[in-house]
């Protein structure tokens, strides 16, 4: 499946939903700083991978999918849960990339600060994408059976 | 105070940028990768480097590895709560936060921070 970049999904998002993400992101960054200042850098470091905005993101994904289904006069509850679960599955793979980000930054930062940020971002992007691609390939090769309701749900759409 | 205002704005902007990119990407499972984007880390590490130097940031990034492993486990638990136990997204993500805390602090207690 091709990876697509589409601006149409942005029309579904309301201005206050961006505001919530901005506020939660800002608060998470402030919290990480405060914890680092009060409890030390080791504890502060843990909070650099805090799933702070994940609750907001997953809830928004769930709501958007449910509303799409409800516009067609169908119950979108299960559909919303499935979309949020897919988002969580993607985040689980992305967290492997986050480990690579932290490891690359840790190794390179004593040598060069700018190179550490570049290396960390490149490591995160490569490892995350490779993890996602491998998972797709393994699912295809293993031919894992899916339930009929799930297949019906994703058919014709780019949910998978 | 200024430091925390800078943290808030920088963190908010980076998180929003990744969130917008995530909204635009398809398929959803690929966009989900951005749920584990290093948005808070970028802002915090940049400020840590400026304020305390590279050694401090290196130590923070070491324990960030534990946090990232905990985030992976957290995401798997959220996924199972949604698919198997049919929780709504908000309670699933809030309840699973206990898993993140337990694993992150468990790893820190077991392996320790950077020297």
- Which pair has the most extensive contact? A-B, 85 and 85 residues
Query: H/E element string of chain A?
Result: EHHHHHH
Q: Tally the beta strands of chain B.
A: 1
Which class do the helix and strand fractions of chain B yield? Answer: mainly alpha
Specify Rg of chain A, calculated over alpha carbons: 19 Å
Report the span from N to C terminus of chain A: 9 Å
| Outline type of chain B | globular
Task: Quickly describe the structure.
Chain A is mainly α.
Task: Provide an overview of this structure.
- The complex is a heterodimer of chains A (160) and B (115).
- The N and C termini of chain A lie close together (9 Å).
- Chain A is globular.
- With 160 residues, chain A is mainly α.
- In chain A, helix 3 packs antiparallel against helix 4 and helix 4 (77-108) crosses helix 5.
- Chain A has helices spanning 15-39, 41-46, 54-71, 77-108, 113-142, 148-154, and one strand spanning 4-5.
- Chain A is built from 6 helices and 1 strand, in the order E-H-H-H-H-H-H.
- Chain B has helices at residues 2-24, 28-31, 39-52, 54-83, 89-95, 97-111, and one strand at residues 25-26.
- In chain B, 57% of the residues are buried.
- The model of chain B has no long low-confidence stretch (mean pLDDT 92).
- The longest helix of chain B is centred in the middle third of the chain and has 30 residues, at 54-83.
- Chain B is mostly helical and 115 residues long.
- Chain B is built from 6 helices and 1 strand, in the order H-E-H-H-H-H-H.
- Chain B is globular.
- The chains are: A mainly alpha (160), B mainly alpha (115).
- At the A-B interface, strand 1, helix 1, helix 2, helix 3 and helix 4 of A face helix 1, strand 1, helix 2, helix 3 and helix 4 of B.
